[in-house]
Design goal:
The chain is elongated, with a radius of gyration of 24 Å. Helix 3 crosses helix 4 and helix 12 packs across helix 13. A hairpin with a 2-residue loop joins strand 4 and strand 5. It is 35% helix and 17% strand. 41% of the residues are buried. By secondary structure, the chain is of the alpha+beta class. The chain has a five-stranded antiparallel β-sheet.
């Protein structure tokens, strides 16, 4: 019986997803079952997640482990791929015979998508695959590798730089003792290191969609931001989930992070791409070359309405997601005592008290900036006007022991509101 070979090119789809125009005490990850542990025995298992794997059925998990055994072995190997898959424009890694698992096309594609989402360390994994059918069940499944990573020398060169970047980030993160502070450090560090890929010639490069772009090219689209964040959180034992879906109707990628306990989880949503303003000048006198905002850092239920995650039934499969928490404790602006409520804008004395608490919190947390937010533009304008009229008084709240106080003549008047957020620089290095 002659079998028909089916080619699936998800590269164009992923490019569409991840070339969104630039607009708009912790618990470790769940301990993995022995079968899952074994597939990471010779790999960078601390970089991987098991979240998607846990949502597969028994036979899907068997195929997952089958694929992973080869992928882990190939990851740091000296193998140069020789067989070019011309229709896919990629190189063949391996063809798996999986007829005995009796899986549908949809199930095997789900397994492959889950592997890609669970394993940010596989920056070299292909965008395309092919399969053959026998009586409507998948008989063989072939995984490909992009041409850029077909040679071992290229993969090893990328890994050397990637490992260096990961090691630096993890070493610096050890100074922080709470989940919130480690999470914020990774968020800030990734944004500082890279710029969003906007050049047309680079958007179609493979590296712009993975951690290679983040750690070696200093440029990426949303997929790279989210995967680098996922990897660093995984390596730090912080429970998180890689998420795909849409933002303002355009395909996008971001993360969810658990800041609760193992038994009582509190899931927040984080979007590094949208928190990277990419050099926007937020002031009149100072140019912050890589300005960071926190509008999409630890968002709670109802704060992420411009994002819509995919589902298990979506064309672009995504595993089931937990509900986002309503608890605003770890939302950045609430955590930093810098979100202005109606009470804070009721009169001059309450507004002055709000500023005092926000500035003192920033100083106590060794922050270089005070980030202020309000619920709407009118409230933000009120806060900003109050600041402009009273900025000189706030210097009195900076203790003599605060770094660089001698270099601060006054808290600058240069801060400008951005939507419903503005920042006051405290540390002018």
């Amino acid at each position: 019986m002659k079998q028909k070979v089916h080619y699936v090119n998800i590269f164009i789809f992923i490019l569409f997803i991840f070339t969104l125009p630039y607009s708009y005490k912790s618990t470790p990850n769940t301990y993995l079952p022995n079968a899952f542990e074994s597939i990471h025995a010779q790999a960078d298992n601390s970089y991987a997640s098991d979240y998607g794997y846990q949502h597969l059925n028994a036979n899907e998990k068997r195929v997952y482990r089958c694929f992973m055994k080869t992928l882990n072995k190939f990851d740091h190997s000296s193998t140069n791929l020789k067989y070019y898959d011309k229709p896919a424009n990629e190189y063949l890694l391996k063809t798996f015979h999986i007829k005995k698992y009796n899986l549908s096309t949809q199930s095997v594609q789900k397994v492959y998508s889950t592997i890609r989402m669970d394993n940010p360390q596989f920056f070299w994994i292909g965008f395309t695959f092919r399969y053959t059918l026998f009586r409507n069940k998948v008989r063989t499944f072939t995984i490909n590798v992009p041409t850029d990573y077909a040679k071992a020398s290229k993969r090893k060169a990328s890994w050397k730089k990637i490992k260096k970047g990961i090691t630096e980030c993890l070493a610096k993160s050890k100074q922080y003792t709470t989940i919130f502070d480690k999470e914020k450090y990774f968020h800030d560090e990734i944004i500082r290191r890279i710029n969003y890929t906007e050049k047309n010639k680079d958007i179609y490069k493979v590296w712009t969609h993975n951690i290679d772009g983040v750690f070696t090219k200093k440029s990426s689209v949303c997929e790279g931001y989210a995967k680098a964040f996922q990897l660093l959180l995984n390596a730090s034992g912080i429970e998180n989930i890689y998420v795909t879906g849409t933002s303002l109707g355009q395909p996008h990628a971001w993360n969810m992070v658990n800041l609760g306990s193992k038994k009582k989880k509190k899931w927040y949503q984080v979007d590094l791409t949208w928190d990277d303003l990419g050099g926007t000048d937020m002031t009149t006198d100072y140019n912050y070359s890589n300005y960071i905002t926190y509008e999409y850092f630890n968002c709670t239920k109802g704060q992420f309405l411009d994002h819509k995650a995919s589902t298990p039934k979506s064309k672009d499969y995504l595993y089931p997601l937990p509900n986002c928490t309503k608890d605003k404790t770890y939302n950045f602006y609430h955590y930093m005592n810098s979100f202005a409520t109606d009470k804070d804008t009721a009169n001059l004395s309450s507004t002055f008290a709000f500023f005092t608490k926000a500035i003192e919190t920033a100083i106590n947390r060794n922050s270089s900036y005070v980030y202020l937010a309000a619920k709407n533009e009118d409230a933000m304008n009120y806060i900003y006007d109050f600041y402009q009229a009273n900025a000189k008084q706030f210097i009195t709240f900076i203790p003599d022991t605060y770094p660089h106080k001698n270099r601060i003549k006054k808290i600058p008047f240069c801060a400008q509101p951005y939507n419903i957020v503005f920042c006051i620089p405290l540390d002018l290095k």
